[in-house]
Amino acid sequence: MPTHRLPLWRYESRRAGWAAGVAPPAALLVTTAMALLAGSGGAGRDQVAQLLLTGLEAILPLTVGMAAVTIVARDGCRELQLSLPARYAGTLGRRLGVLALAGAVCAVTFSAGLWLSGWWTGPSILASPLVWAPPMLWLTGLTVLVGMLGRSVVLATSMVCALWLGEQLFAQSFVGLEWTRPFFLFTTSRVGVGEDWLTNRLALIGSGLLFVAVVVLLLRRPHSLLTEEEE
């Protein structure tokens, strides 16, 4: 990265807020605490390892998605930004990029730690990004998209949390139907790395990129970023 760009990224990191830096490690710290409590409560090694993998595939992506929509909503200078020559899509992209980088660094570090300590139960460690990256992309893209369409953080977070919880509670139903199986977020931790695992991961990546593309298109319509009060 050119040195003259560094101050801009530092500024955007500050504007992204504390959630961008705190949310990803907090999610994995909570996961580790839950695993320690489960282990001390008599849970077997397999159950503890499953919980650690669930934190990487389920808890971290949900946390990053919730943090992403707060980054979009917390900017109090949208009207000013939209009046400037620079595209707000680039500004917002950099701020979300800070969050994505924090999430990726935490996920890679956590995965490496599990592998080195013998607690890794996912696919090959080289394929470990496919455990957390597809659901993170999918949930983040959907949350930001719903937040922009509904112009409401509450709507976006409530809808995505309900979907996340629904997939957890009715996992067998999602896995049992052909048309929902490719979009099941928790295949690694709930089903395992089978013959449909890679298809599931690619489907999540493809649909997640579609959400991102729609968000980029919406950013070309400035009023889509403004709430009724701001308009």
UniProtKB/TrEMBL annotation:
<feature type="transmembrane region" description="Helical">
    <location>
        <begin position="126"/>
        <end position="146"/>
    </location>
</feature>
<keyword id="KW-1133">Transmembrane helix</keyword>
<keyword id="KW-0812">Transmembrane</keyword>
<feature type="transmembrane region" description="Helical">
    <location>
        <begin position="197"/>
        <end position="219"/>
    </location>
</feature>
<feature type="transmembrane region" description="Helical">
    <location>
        <begin position="58"/>
        <end position="77"/>
    </location>
</feature>
<protein>
    <submittedName>
        <fullName>Uncharacterized protein</fullName>
    </submittedName>
</protein>
<keyword id="KW-0472">Membrane</keyword>
<feature type="transmembrane region" description="Helical">
    <location>
        <begin position="16"/>
        <end position="38"/>
    </location>
</feature>
<feature type="transmembrane region" description="Helical">
    <location>
        <begin position="98"/>
        <end position="120"/>
    </location>
</feature>
